[in-house]
Amino acid sequence: MGVKERKALEKQIRRNQILDAARTLLFSTGIDSISISKIAEQAELGVGTIYFYYKNKEQIFVALQQEGVAILYSTILQIFKNKIGHQEKLTQIALSYYRFSEEQKNYFDIINYFLSSPIVFFEPNLKNRIDMSGRKILLIIRDIVADGVLQGVFNEKDPGKFSIMFWGTLHGLIHFKKLEGTVLENESHKELYDYSVQKLIHTIK
Amino acid sequence: MGVKERKALEKQIRRNQILDAARTLLFSTGIDSISISKIAEQAELGVGTIYFYYKNKEQIFVALQQEGVAILYSTILQIFKNKIGHQEKLTQIALSYYRFSEEQKNYFDIINYFLSSPIVFFEPNLKNRIDMSGRKILLIIRDIVADGVLQGVFNEKDPGKFSIMFWGTLHGLIHFKKLEGTVLENESHKELYDYSVQKLIHTIK
Amino acid sequence: MGVKERKALEKQIRRNQILDAARTLLFSTGIDSISISKIAEQAELGVGTIYFYYKNKEQIFVALQQEGVAILYSTILQIFKNKIGHQEKLTQIALSYYRFSEEQKNYFDIINYFLSSPIVFFEPNLKNRIDMSGRKILLIIRDIVADGVLQGVFNEKDPGKFSIMFWGTLHGLIHFKKLEGTVLENESHKELYDYSVQKLIHTIK
Amino acid sequence: MGVKERKALEKQIRRNQILDAARTLLFSTGIDSISISKIAEQAELGVGTIYFYYKNKEQIFVALQQEGVAILYSTILQIFKNKIGHQEKLTQIALSYYRFSEEQKNYFDIINYFLSSPIVFFEPNLKNRIDMSGRKILLIIRDIVADGVLQGVFNEKDPGKFSIMFWGTLHGLIHFKKLEGTVLENESHKELYDYSVQKLIHTIK
DNA sequence: CATGAATGAGCATTCATTCAT
DNA sequence: TATGAATGAATGCTCATTCAT
C-alpha cells in the first residue's frame, strides 16, 4: 500500500470518526441539537478539524441522511429478494417504511429534513448525492411493478411513475401521524396507512 | 360605537399590524428568518409589544398558518360549489393544492412547518387549532366522495379514509418536487402529480 | 359611616385583593416568579391599578413579609403565654422557627429576602416598618429571659443582647440547612440545631 | 517551556482576565448587576468568549466565591498558626469574619448569595465545590476546640458540632447588621457581636 | 494536519414602570 | 379611580465559521 492509499484510508477513518460522533448526537438528543462544537467534543477532535473533513454542517447531515437511506434500502432490498408474491412485496415495503419512521425515527427525521424543509440552496453536487441515494429505493419498487406486469400480475403502463406515486403516498401519510388525536379522531393512523397501501396496489391490479 | 368596541377594534388592528409584519417577513425572506425582533422592527413596535399581543412566536406562526389554510380552503370551497362532476371536483382540488404550493409557497411552507417538522411540543389547545383548521378541507373531499357514492359515480366504502389518503398523496408528492432534475430525470413533476391524481380517483370508480 | 371612611375601607379592600394575589403567587411558584403583571392578572386588575395601591413591587413584598412575621409572631406569642418553664419556652420558640422555615418556606424566603439580600437602598420609612415587625419577636424572647432572671432560673445581665444573639444563631443555622449532604456529612441538621439551642440556653443558666 | 504549557498559561490568563472583569463589576456595582454581557464588555471580549472559558454565569460566581473563601481562609489560617491561646484564637477568628463582612463586603455578599438565596438548582458537582470550600474553615475551628479540649482549656464533647454552631451564630449575627438604627436602637452591633462571641466561647469553658 | 480560541450577531422571552385615556 | 397598551433594555445562552499558530 502506497503512501497515497494510506493517507486516503486515514482520511476515511477520520471522516467516520466524525460521523460516529454526529450519529451519536443524532440518536441521543435529536437532529435539532446537533452542533459542530458538540460533534467535535463527542469526536474528541478540534472544531477546526471537523471543518477540514467536512466543508460545513450540511455535509455531515447529508452523510447521516445517506446512512439512513442505506439502512432503509437494505431492508427493502431484502424484501425484494424474498420469494414472495409481487403484491406481498409492495405491502411489505410499505410496512417497512412505516416501521422505519417509527423505529429509526432519527434517521427518518434527517431524511425528512432534506425532503421537507423549505431550505433553498444546496450545492448541485450535494443535492445530487442526496437525491440519488433515494432513487435506488424507487427503482426497486419500479422493478417489482414492472416484473409484476410482465408476469401478468399487475397492469400498469408506467411502473416508474407509479413507484414515485407509491412512495409519495407513503411519505405524505406518515406525516399525518401527527394528526392522531385531533383530525384523526376515531381513525387509527396505522389502519389508514394499511388501507391506503391496499388501495394503491389495487390500482395496478 | 362605544369605547369598548373601539378599543377592541384597535386591538385587532394592532394584531393585524403585527401579522402584516410577520407575513412580510415570511414572504420576503422565508419562514426560517422570522424572529420576534425582526417582526417588531418591521411592525415599528417594541419587542415587548409583540408579546403583549401574541403569547409567543409560535402563536404568530399559527396565525399565519391559519391564514394559509383559510386561503386554500376558500379556493377548495369554490370548487366544491361549482356545478361540475364529482371527479372533476377532485381533480380541480388536487390541482389547486399544487398551485397553492407554488403560488403561495410561503404559506405552504408554514403549513408544512407544522406538519413535517420533528418539533416536540405544542400546547394541546394550539395543536388542536392547527390540526383542525385543515380538517375542513378533508371534510369537503369526504363529502364529495360520499356524495359521489350516493350518486353512483364513485364506489368507496369509507370516504373519510379515502379523503385522508387522497390528501396525503398530494402532500407527499408535492415534497417530491425537490427531486426534479435529479431523481425525476425525465419525468415532469407536474405530469407525475396529474398521473397520481387520476390514479387515485380511479381507485374509487 | 361617612364617605371618607367608606373610601378608606374600599381602598383597604383593594389592597388586600392585591395582596391575596401576590400571596397566591408566592405560594404557588415562589418569590422569584412574582411579577407585577402576574399579580395584576391574578387579582383581575389592571397593572396600572396595582401601582395605584402600591408604589412599587418592593412595597408588596414588604406587606408579604409583614404577614410572614405576623404568623411567626403569633406562634411565638402562644408559646410565651403557655404555662411552661422558661427554658421550655425558649426551646419551643427555637423549634417553632425551625418549623416555620420548613412549613412556611415561602414566608421564610421573603423574610430572608429582606434580611439577607445585599440590596442597599430602601426608603427609611419602609425599612423601619420591615425591621420593626421582627422586633416584637425579639422582645418576647427578651422578656422570657428577663423574667427567668427575676425568677432565678436564668442568669443573664443583658437579656436584650441575649435575645438577639439567640435569634441570630437560629437564623444563621437555618441557612446551613443547605450544607446537608456536603459539609454536614454525618451530622443531621436538625440535631445540630437542637444541640445549638440547648447550648445557647445553657449559657444563661 | 513547551507550547502546551504556554497555551495552558495563556488560557489561565484569559480566565483570570474574565474573573478580573467580573470582580470589578462585583466591587463597583454589586452582585445583582453582574451579567455576562457586562463582564464581556468589561473584559473587552466577545460574549461567546466568556462562555468558552466558563460554562455559565454560575461558574463565574463560584470562582468569585472561592476567591472570597480563600481570602477568608488564609486569614483564619494565620490566626490558627499564631502562638496564642485557644480562646484568643476563636475570638480573633470571629473578629476576622466580622471584618471580612465589612472590608470585603462584596466577597461576603457572594458567599452569602450561595448560602442564603432560595435558589433552586445547582449541579451536584458545583454545589459540592461551593460547600466544601467553606468546610476547611469549619475544620480549623473544630481543631482549635478539639485541641483546647485535649489541653484541658475547653470542655466540649462534640467539637465538630460546636464549630458549626459557632460559625452559624457569627453568620446569622452579621445579617443583623442591617437592623442597626431600627431594631438595634441603642445597641451597637459590634458590641453585640463581641458579646455573642464571648458567650459562645464561655459555653465550652 | 490539527487545533481551539475568538467572535458577535442572534435568539426568545421577561419585566417594572409610565401615561394617555 | 382604573385601565392596559407600550416600551426597550436586559437576560443567559448558542452557534457556524474563521484563522493564526
What does this structure look like?
The structure is a homotetramer of 205-residue chains. Chain A is mostly helical and 205 residues long. The first copy, chain A, folds into two domains: 1-54, Homeodomain-like (Arc Repressor Mutant, subunit A), CATH 1.10.10; 59-202, Tetracycline Repressor, domain 2, CATH 1.10.357.10. Chain A is 76% helix and 0% strand. Chain A contains nine helices and no strands. Chain A has helices at 3-29, 36-43, 47-53, 57-81, 86-103, 105-116, 124-150, 159-175, 189-202. In chain A, α1 (3-29) crosses α2 and α4 runs parallel beside α7 (124-150). The longest helix of chain A has 27 residues, at 3-29. Chain A starts with a helix and ends with a helix. The mean pLDDT of chain A is 91. Chains A and B meet through α6, α7, α8 and α9 of A and α6, α7, α8 and α9 of B. Chain B binds a DNA duplex (21 and 21 nucleotides) through residues 3, 7, 10-11, 14, 35-37, 40, 45-49, 51-53, 56-57.
- Which class do the helix and strand fractions of chain A yield? mainly alpha
As an assembly, this protein is: homotetramer
What Rg of chain A do the Cα atoms give?
20 Å
Q: How many structural domains of chain A?
A: 2
Q: What fold name goes in the CATH topology slot of the largest domain in chain A?
A: Tetracycline Repressor, domain 2
Largest interchain contact = A-B, 50 and 47 residues
The separation of the N and C termini of chain A measures 55 Å
Note the overall shape of chain A.
globular
The biggest beta sheet of chain A reads:
none
